[in-house]
Amino acid sequence: MAKPQGFIDHVHPDYVCLLRKSLYGLKQAPRAWNEKFTSFLPSLGFTFSHSDPSLFIRHTTGGMIALLLYVDDIVITGSDSTGIHEVISELSMVFDMKDLGTLTYFLGLEVAKVQHGIFMSQTKYAKDLLAKTGMDTIKSCSSPCLPHYQMTKDQGTPLKDPTVYKSIVGALRYLTFTRPDIAYAVNTVCQFMTNPTDVHYAAVKRILRYLQGTLHKGLFYSSTGAVNNTVNVKAFCDADWAREVIQKRFTTGFVVYIGLCPVSWQSKKQGTVSRSLTKSEYRSLANTAAEISWIRHLLCELKIKIPRAPLLKCDNLSALALASNPVFHSKIKHLDNDFHFVRERVQHNDLCLEYVPTIEQTADILTKGLPSPIFRTHCVNLRLVTLAELEEGC
Questions:
Q1: Strand 261-269 vs strand 311-314: parallel, antiparallel, or unpaired?
Q2: Could you tell me which CATH number the domain at 219-393 has?
Q3: CA dist., res. 391 & res. 394, Å (int)
Q4: Burial (CB count <10 Å: 0-12, 13-18, 19+), residue 257
Q5: Predicted confidence (pLDDT) per residue in 197-221, tens digit
Q6: Residue pLDDT, tens place only, 296-319
Q7: Which candidate in 31, 56, 121, 292 could, as Cys together with 46 as Cys, close a disulfide (CB 3.0–4.6 Å)?
Q8: What is the number of H-type helices and E-type strands within the chain?
Q9: pTM of the prediction?
């Protein structure tokens, strides 16, 4: 720590201050506090989650307690209400804490309790973003991107100051935590962060116009999906092969459901080139299988049972055949070995594959721009609703 201004030590002018403990506000303070807090949790009976380093779990005779830690912000939940109050009291005796009560707002995420579940949104965050960009009075549009439209890095005129573009796109990435409907559009504009042009900025503005008309949309998580502490897991995966006209890379997308609720999704441009649509779909299957495997491990740590093997739905019959039939191994032997573990999962009955028609493929919304009617249908499948719609339904 540097010496404060105005303090001069003529004997040792090059000396600095040695901290005996971390001071709040310094760079190392959050890490020091986090280390002290996490080292104290085992004394309360919590164990570290191997699936998520920020999750701590405690199983009691009254149920389960889960503690989620982000720097110095804490969320505690579980089925043992008495144990939760005891944990809060014990933590308050050691740390200077403030109990804010029932969770309503956390790191930009708004949480509302409704009948039969909870509703999560980022309405305030989206409003602040629109106000910051001066787009809070613009006319809305029906979708975040044009159907089947492909941008390239050389289109348009480079922006004089790309800082604004990067700032907005970074904010939009955080908004995808509760808005999977904009994940593909945000993934697309993220690819031009190095040298954005006015064409790319126009695509960003279209996303903001879509948000203007869907500010109050969020995810509804139903509490009726679990029966006797068991849940079913299913997923949709898709790949859009060679739509990227320059590098011929494919975009893969998946969405994983626990019960009726989407809990994990991704829209990502892959770093490798596939020689056919079948192989790109096969890679998408492998990526989704890895995500399902992680979710299964997390559920096992929470002692939530999965009565049957997770169901993975794909709209490509050839990719399903490659994943379940060893006869076709010679056709994909050039692929990396880590993509073949999906076949091992199928053979061990840890994963079931099923064909789904393209029109019912929910992951389509994560791999390409879609016409408005199909786009709205998939938004419904993703459980994207408003709080007003939920209250009317109740």
A1: unpaired
A2: 3.30.420.10
A3: 5
A4: buried
A5: 999 999 999 999 999 999 999 999 9
A6: 999 999 988 888 899 999 988 888
A7: 56
A8: 11, 14
A9: 0.85
